[in-house]
Design a protein that fits this description.
Strand order of the largest sheet: 2-11-10-3-4-9-7
Largest sheet: 7 strands, mixed
Radius of gyration: 15 Å
Strand content: 25-35%
Number of strands: 11
Shape: globular
Number of domains: 1
Length: about 180
């Protein structure tokens, strides 16, 4: 388990990507042909409502830290469901490995976090391949769509590299398999 440094927390607090007030046509067109990862209950729920199925969705049953529970029927829209623990303000090895394994599996996966999923985007970016996007909420502002670049991946790997994972997780450089 690792806590995020103050410097990295500052870096992560700014939207990384394009901020959208709503999921409009431009937003939807940017997702075409991409490996889509979503972090957050409201974002995931909104994507599903407009007919966009994330390849990986990470939720915690909360919106802006208020308990809302897991929406009825959401689990059935995914090929598999994984539950992990992740305390607020931290990134656990369990969360990192579940994200890595989900990306490599090629199966649409819902990860339900007991705790908080706010920092889950970092390992999503760290393990992403080309043609991947991350969508997450920016409270009070809208939704952020990050088209993940090599520099985004390097920064995320630098942050996640602080977790004792024996660096073995970065040796598997396979592309996600999409069915």
């Amino acid at each position: 388990m690792m806590k995020i440094s103050e410097r990295d927390r500052e870096f992560l607090s700014e939207p990384r990507g394009k901020l959208f007030k709503k999921m409009d046509n431009e937003f939807v067109s940017m997702l075409k042909g991409k490996f889509l990862m979503s972090v957050g209950d409201m974002v995931t729920k909104s994507l599903l409502r407009v007919g966009i199925d994330p390849d990986i969705a990470i939720i915690d049953g909360k919106i802006e830290r208020k308990e809302i529970g897991i929406e009825e029927g959401i689990k059935e829209t995914f090929d598999r469901v994984i539950r992990v623990r992740n305390p607020p303000g931290e990134i656990t090895r369990e969360l990192v490995e579940s994200i890595r394994d989900s990306i490599l599996s090629g199966k649409r996966t819902l990860i339900i976090v007991d705790g908080e999923e706010d920092l889950a985007g970092v390992p999503c970016v760290a393990f992403s391949s080309e043609h991947s996007v991350l969508v997450y909420g920016q409270p009070g502002e809208g939704v952020v769509l990050l088209e993940i670049s090599d520099s985004d991946r390097r920064k995320a790997r630098e942050i996640v590299g602080g977790i004792d994972l024996e660096n073995r997780i970065f040796r598997e450089e396979r592309e996600p398999t999409l069915e």
